[in-house]
Amino acid sequence: MVLKQAAEVGEAVKTLLLEEELTVEQMSMDLNISKQLGSHIKNDRRRMQQDVAKASIQAYDCPAYATDLIHEFSGGYTPPVLRGKAVDWDNRLAVEDFAVREVQEVIAILENIRPILNRKPGETTKEERERIAQVTDEIYDAEAALANLKITLAKNYNIPLKKRHENRKVVWKAKEWFA
Questions:
Q1: What are phi and psi of 6, to 5 degrees?
Q2: How far is CA 89 from the centre of its chain?
């Protein structure tokens, strides 16, 4: 995956301004860009450069904004902020139910294909590999649901996700999940 050098992030900026109760002028000052450039980025007349995106993620702890930005700059490699009509995104219990259902689907499929996963990859059939590919699709769905649940909980309960993430990295390192 290669990160884009610039991306159209107008919707993300609108989310940031709304959730952080900022003006374009305040945001522009915080990011050391002109008010005109800030307005152009907000209205998708100019793309946000990677260095400005990085500075903005460091400057603000707005999970929906950061998620939108990372999704755009990664070319869709990370889950987006979901805004469709299938779920009432303003209702934290509805978002929780959605996330739980998506995770349960993954668990059910994994339990179902466990005999396939117990075999060496070279010993699987084309159909079995397709079933494994389908579980990766369901994992993507669950990741998106969980990312959006995290955003919802952070917003509703005023949880600083940047700080929580830093704390988790210490835990993961202690568990030797990563070096």
A1: -155, 155
A2: 15
